[in-house]
Description:
By secondary structure, chain A is mainly alpha-helical. Chain A has helices spanning 16-46, 51-75, 84-103, 117-139, 145-164, 190-213, 215-225, 227-232, 237-263, 273-286, 293-311, 316-329, 333-339; strands at residues 174-175, 181-182, 185-186, 265-266.
Amino acid sequence: MSQPSVGGASIGQWSAAGMIDGRRRTGIVAIGALVVLIALPWIAASSGHAALTLLVTRMMIYGLAAVSLDLILGIGGMISFGHAAYFGLGAYVVGILAYHSGAGEPMFGVLPGSNLVVIAWPAALIISALVALVLGALCLRTEGVSFIMITLAFAQVLYFFFVSLKFYGGDDGLILRGRNVVSEYDLRNPILFYYICFGLLAAFVATCRRLLDSRFGQIVQGACQNERRMAAIGVSTYRYKLACFTIAGGAAGLAGALMANYARFVSPDLMHWTESGQLMVMVVLGGVGTLFGPILGAILVVGLETTLTSLTEHWKFILGPVLVLAVLFTRGGLWRLLTGQSRAFNQ
Amino acid sequence: MLWALLWERLRGMVAGAAFLHFRKLKGNSTMRNSIVLSVFATALFAHLAIAQNEVRIGMITTLSGPAGYLGEDVRDGFQLAVDEENGKLGGIPVRTLVEDDGLKPGQGKEIANRFLGTEKVKVLTGFIFSNVLAAVAPDAFEAGAFVISPNAGPSNFAGKDCNKLYFVTSWQNDAVFEAAGQNATNLGKKRGYVLAPNYQAGKDAIAGFKRFFKGEIVGETYTRLDQTDFGPEMAQIRAANPDAVFQFHPGGLGITFIKQYVQAGLQDTPMFVGGSGLDRRILTAVGQAAQGVNITSQWNADFDNPASRAFVAAFETKYKRVPDSYASQGYDTARLLASALKAVHGDLSNSDSLRQALLKADFVSVRGAFRFARNQHPIQDLYALRAMKDASGALDIKTIGKVLSDHTDAYGAACNL
Amino acid sequence: MLALEQILNGLQFGVMLFLLSAGLTLVFGVMGLLNLAQGSLYMIGAYAAAYAGARTGSFIAGILAGITAAAAVGMLTEYLVLRRLYSRSHLDQVLATYGLILFFNEGITILFGRQPLYVDIPASLNGAIQLATGLSYSTYRLVIIAVGLLVGIGLYVLIGHTRLGMLVRAGATHREILRAMGTRIRLIYTIVFGLGALLAGLAGAMAGPVSAVQVGMGEQILILTFVVVIIGGLGSVRGAVLGAILVGVVDTLTRVYLPVLLKTLMSNASADAIGGGLSSMGVYLLMALVLLCRPRGLLAGSV
């Protein structure tokens, strides 16, 4: 079975000078992006484009989902075509809890609903992670094309399951009355919500970096590059890959929880395979395996979608070939373009 | 629309800046520079000033997919009324922002957020499908904006979820189907088989038919909104042996259904549909297969009152096609808005006065008698139509007779307005 | 009798799936390419057939146009884009062909607009045939089943008894050696891809009268096509036959009878919704089951 190529730069290709220069550029780009993101709500408000804050919030939510996909796709080398399932699942956890809290009647007559961040968001994360654990345990028994298809299959199963749940809206989706609350702070304040999303995204990326540096991360990356070699030195890659898959699923679920709050609307469309495809596009355009790249990818895709729709309704006619060209002729995506690095920057 | 405006302004600004820069390079004349600058500035702000006097109407409608022509019809009917007054309604300048919801509630919500937030729209209209309406309406109410639906009329908003800001100008969803049930009963049918897609409007349709059909229901099937093959359903119908089949499948779904109905050899069992089940587009696409289908609707192009005749003539002249009832609904919505805007002199700041003005329904509807019930849904007459050959042998939709008079909906009692 | 009719419906659906999946599995077996754009070729075939049929008034002309258009577009795309992907990772293939889907969908929208096209069954094929007492079945759908049978036989002859078929079989099991054989191989690849595209176009052209020709029709059936191919075994045409029949019949029967079963337990609307959801899930669960027991599919290894 062919190993996925995920950027393709091996250590030997970098000269010492090149590596330092790359690191510096990476640092500059990363810090620059950080500053822009932190200052954005202020910039947006003062220039009269308050809607920009909302837009970038959405970009960051998708960025979180995309980074979680990069963890398994780029770092772990597992091509999951069903990642949006966890995204949608997290959103539905929040939605269902909010529904029961609003309607006053508990779930199955026993579990009360909840509108609190401190309950809903961890619930979304944990439930998505658990489902990822179960499904991952099954899917990781296959590899290559079968793995792609089986992850797709399970995502579709979840999609159709939620479509059939007429009680929670089915195809029409579930409307959330408001956003989750943290003690007395209602997250309806767009700026507060923006910073929360930003904080979570930054925290997750930092966590991933720590993970990569650790033994755990080294094993996963090793498994991606050459599975046989890892087995030869006595490491059971299955367990590490599964752990990776679970963490990614949980993070995607958290992103879903944020999305449910942002749109105040959840529908099975969030888990459709085309959503998974879109996440993959974000990862690839941004830079597979770079962890930061997918954030850029998310910004690019969401930005394109929003601006191009008003210019021409046929924007996908351009996006399609752009994607094809990007796949054929670039390696490392946007991140590589900006920083010269095509892997997460401690390699 | 707004982006085009901004783009123009931006171009103007950039051109102006470049021009000034070029000028500066060439040397002196700060006087000339400031004149140029002030010209650009004035143009900019004049734009803004003009923009602020007009009333912005947000039209969120379905323009793509098999049901896309419904949105097109509503949009065209609405626009006809605006064009008749040269860009005004009731003497007040209006600007209609039209966007496609793609039959996706999530997409409709995104558009609504933009309309209500960035564009500060106070009136939303255009809704074709109930599921999109259901996703958008709560946001509109929260923003204090009016929702005037020209097509979708789900039952919950007619009853317990009714709202001061919510008006429907077409019908409550069940209405034409209640009329269909009455029509079938009038024609002596005793065994009915009913089908509709599995969403709120579909369920309302079947509920409405059952409410007024006095015969026995021998089969009830809920299809999918993305279904293209009804072979299995045809087999089930045949097995149940009804003497009347009622189906509600809007747009392209209806075309496919009627064609496959005849292909399956079921054409001897009369079909009953609501107005949207067989409109002129479906008739054109389906051809002879539609012959004999019984339709119930609140309007048809052959209505004899002056307003209707004028509307049909104007529509045919402008758009080169005979209008469907959706176009008449769009037109009536615009005329209703016109009457209300005139009454409040274009001032939308007091929602109560706008609401009172709308409730009066002080306009001439193309369907004849029109007034609002307490739950802000129409009270109107419903007619039986049939697809049959006219004098020249071509298939047309002809009005047969009235089925229900002064019909109101079954949910109004639960509304607290 | 109703059950028999539904089984025939399932077979007819299975034939459509087979036509699409045969191409998909051939292309994967011989070239190692995972082609998401197969659904787009189906759509192109349907649109070309609808357009040509409407312009000439001849159904046969429509079918020929559909086949030709799909094969032409397929081979052109293979030549320009897809052949660069044969040696790339599956991720790259998936993403590039996904980009092609976007391109084709919008392209068709630009050419034909967003309204679906409606194709009529030719008068000669309209109506029903009495198969047995109490069972009359639509003539057109029977024709579809017959076409599927013919194509199946044709492929069997092609793969088992011709030189091209020999190369296909070789490619399915010893791809590297085949590649090492020289430049003629490129032509073979293009022809194989063209054949797959042709079959997809045929499916699309035939699907026109029984469904609506609209943008995105390819994606609806694409997922099921992949399920068929995976169940049958990547690279195996026989597997595609088996998988298509399995999926077609299972999907149709569960779609019809599951709601009936559920209606005894709950309201009609809920039964139809849950039944619809469960039956859609059913096919995927079937695929997952097959993959867990036979990770390479039921008939993998045999072309």
